[in-house]
Design brief:
alpha+beta, SH3 type barrels, 23% strand
Length: 140
């Protein structure tokens, strides 16, 4: 089994080395191999690509816009979010915080409820945005 694996691995390495050599031999032409689609790019294109990739993206699953707004809310743990009644129509969503049933536009602790999500509520005051999350109950 180990011999067979070694032969397969060395064959793959040789294959990719040949493909890389072929791609380097014709840098201005597109290759006929779909997995090696590459072409020479100008220095201006290279600078544009490298400057956009230097934008310190930390989460590849979020768009740039989502990443800018992600994590800007301050997490509040002194308010108790006990339930969320979520509706895709935001005007119908309700949250129970410290025993009060709240909807968007209501106030608690001098903060306005601005958004109700399935697992969190976003509050806002004059300076900041806050997040109150449902607590996960483990092992009941």
């Amino acid at each position: 089994m180990n011999k067979r694996f070694g032969l397969i691995l060395s064959g793959l390495i040789i294959f990719f080395l040949i493909c890389e050599k072929m791609a380097k031999a014709n840098p201005t032409e597109e290759t006929n191999m779909p997995f090696l689609k590459s072409k020479a790019i100008s220095s201006q294109e290279h600078e544009a690509v490298s400057s956009s990739s230097n934008s310190k993206r930390t989460n590849p699953f979020l768009s740039e816009e989502e990443e800018k707004t992600f994590g800007k809310s301050i997490l509040i743990d002194y308010l108790l979010l006990s339930a969320i009644l979520y509706s895709s129509f935001s005007s119908n969503s309700r949250a129970i915080i410290n025993g009060q049933i709240l909807k968007i536009g209501n106030y608690i602790d001098n903060k306005e409820v601005v958004k109700i999500e399935p697992e969190e509520v976003i509050l806002k005051d004059d300076q900041n945005e806050y997040c109150v999350r449902l607590k996960k109950v483990v092992g009941q």
